[in-house]
Amino acid sequence: MLPRQNFLIILMIFGIALSGFIYWNNVSCSCKQQITKEVIMKQKWKQKTFGLRSSPGLLYSQPNVLVGRTDIASVSPWAAPIIWEGTFDPTLIDSIYKQHNLTIATTVFALGKYTRFIKDFLESAEQHYFVGFRVHFYLFTDQPESVPEVKMGENRTLKIQKVQTLNRWQDISMSRMEKLEKLIEEELANEADYIFCLDIDAKFYGRWGAETLGRLVGVIHPWLYNVPRNQFTYERRPESKAFIAADEGDYYYAGAAFGGTLEEVHHLTKTCREQLSIDAANSIEAAWQEESHLNKYFLLNKPSKLLSPEYMWRDINVKVDPIKIVRFTNVPKNYAEVRPNV
């Protein structure tokens, strides 16, 4: 009888030990899988790192810490540069960035009657936008058959993304963040180093180059760059996730242009898409749809570089003193005619 009891005790101890080993092994494997997954995700968004190295023998104007533009602010309160004409040397900055074989993804949306703006946008981009760099354009449209033939330069491509037709321009605006988020996840992770998201109903008139590259880049709105923050057209209803109080805010950013590294822009689009969805579930539509949510995001997540209104001006024919050059500008249009529900 006693040997049988001893056998049962030994069997029980062995079972407990075996169960513990199996549990530990499962936990260990799970942790390893989680760590592996995290490493893969980190590698997925790994950004090229490089120093700001100049080419030997390159000639350019001598910098001067005491002389420069005095009519504009060239740095934000959080020490992010604000890019204006006269604040950078294009020869030097191109020399620095062209060494690194960078690829810039650029997205535009052309739905409905907005396909009429594609040709001018692309042709002007070929003349002024990241000239000498590898650029991949991603055009979202509901009318692929209406996309005009545009001759692209070396290392510059156009890929058409078919999307469904939407009846409200507000819905088109609000759907962009979701599509950009998915594009980065599904196609761009290993295809590009930086991404810019631009409006199609605009045209380039001057250089837009490596001086705009940064971790997270916002463009100061051309209508609101010189007004008090309480006059910014932020979303003012506390019920909205885009809400910004009248005594808050840094700058008002244009929804027509923003960019940065893939990781940063992915986080931006994902966050804005989630906030838009929460608003929609509560039957709230922010004052300026995605632009309102973009401004809330930039309030909480400060851009590492700001582009002056030169990079998103309101009309090539409008001249004001701070604007020495118009680089990118809205095309004059009849909104009632091109927008489906105006």
Largest sheet: 8 strands, mixed
> Major sheet: order of its strands?
1-9-7-8-5-2-3-4
Q: Show unreliable segments.
A: 34-43
Number of helices in the DSSP assignment: 7
Note down, in words, how this protein is organized.
With 342 residues, the protein is an alpha/beta fold. It contains 7 helices and 10 strands. The strands form 2 sheets. It has an 8-stranded mixed β-sheet. α4 (169-188) runs antiparallel to α5 and α5 crosses α6 (289-300).
Task: Provide tags for this entry.
342 residues; alpha/beta; 8-stranded mixed sheet; two-stranded antiparallel sheet; 10 strands
Short description:
The protein is an alpha/beta fold and 342 residues long. 35% of the residues lie in helices and 15% in strands. The chain has 7 helices and 10 strands.
